[in-house]
Write a structure and sequence with these properties.
Helices cover 38% and strands 15% of the residues.
Length: 173
């Protein structure tokens, strides 16, 4: 008896797409290049793309690259938005773990396994996110203080943050 068929994969990568084109291709290929150590599948929810995204998702080229990895496509007739599209994938999957991967993002080696290990270290942890890195290797600011500090609000509102060196922006703002 194949347990994976009965319960589904351990992890589902969820990618919401709308005219992602080459970005979508790079996101999917990064999952295939740097796969997690657990069984996984890929769910692409397409929000009525008018580019060649759907053609590529059904191409023989991609099918050959997938090997045994299952790629599920949910093709919407209209753009339902990011939230509803994710909810469609959540309802579809039976995976215990979900990785929301934006179509304009790419995995790096070991990133997914590090996140899984972080989640499994403490049963109280329900979610975690990766460090976001720009193409040039610099850290992409992806979190902010809540509530923000008064001086940070002022600096951001007046766009004075652009005067700070890039490496300090994320730490200070």
């Amino acid at each position: 008896m194949d347990v994976e068929q009965e319960t589904g994969p351990e992890l589902s990568f969820v990618i919401v797409n709308w005219n992602g084109g080459e970005l979508l291709r790079r996101a999917v290929e990064s999952v295939l290049e740097f796969p997690p150590a657990v069984a996984y599948d890929i769910i692409v929810v397409d929000n009525a793309s008018t580019d060649a995204s759907l053609d590529w998702l059904g191409s023989d080229e991609l099918k050959a690259r997938l090997g045994g990895v299952k790629l599920h496509l949910i093709a919407n007739a209209e753009n339902l938005g990011f939230g509803k599209a994710n909810n469609q994938a959540f309802a579809f999957t039976k995976a215990r773990l979900l990785f929301l991967l934006n179509a304009d993002a790419e995995l790096r080696a070991g990133a997914c396994d590090t996140l899984i290990a972080t989640l499994e270290e403490d049963a109280r942890t329900g979610a975690c996110g990766p460090r976001l890195v720009n193409p040039d290797g610099s850290l992409q600011t992806s979190v902010w203080r809540n509530p923000p500090l008064a001086w940070a609000t002022l600096v951001s509102g007046l766009q004075l943050g652009r005067l700070l060196p890039r490496r300090l922006r994320g730490e200070l703002l």
